[in-house]
Amino acid sequence: MRLESIGKNIRKYRLMRKLRQEDLAEKADLSINYVGAIERGEKTPSLESLISIINALGVSADMILADVLDNGYLVKDSLLAQKLDKLSAEDRSQIYDVIDTMIKHSKQAKP
């Protein structure tokens, strides 16, 4: 399992909210060193700590766990759709063309 991705996602959402590790640690009632170790993938948070972090960040669990859940790609698809909705029709079309090309050249794509 790619548990280090949990820490990367925590870091990503912490930075998106313009929080320092110290801020997140305080909001989640955890030590700064522990939050840092989680973000670096050195430690896996306990369920209680994970819930505290998720609540402190104001995100859903599936956003943090998207890379380790079997259905995590549904979350990623949803987040990507939200981003695409904010683009112009022309930009969306170009992105879809790139994705289609990548799928055609994928090693797993079937003819």
Automatic annotation (TrEMBL):
Entry keyword set: DNA-binding
Domain HTH cro/C1-type: 10-64
Pfam families recorded: HTH_3
InterPro entries: Cro/C1-type_HTH (IPR001387), Lambda_DNA-bd_dom_sf (IPR010982), TransReg_Diox_bact_type (IPR050807)
SMART domains, sorted: HTH_XRE (SM00530)
GO function term, MF aspect, one: DNA-binding transcription factor activity
Cellular component terms (Gene Ontology): cytosol
PANTHER family in the cross-refs: HTH-TYPE TRANSCRIPTIONAL REGULATOR, METHYLPHOSPHONATE SYNTHASE
Protein name per the record: DNA-binding transcriptional regulator, XRE-family HTH domain
Organism of derivation: Anaerotignum lactatifermentans DSM 14214
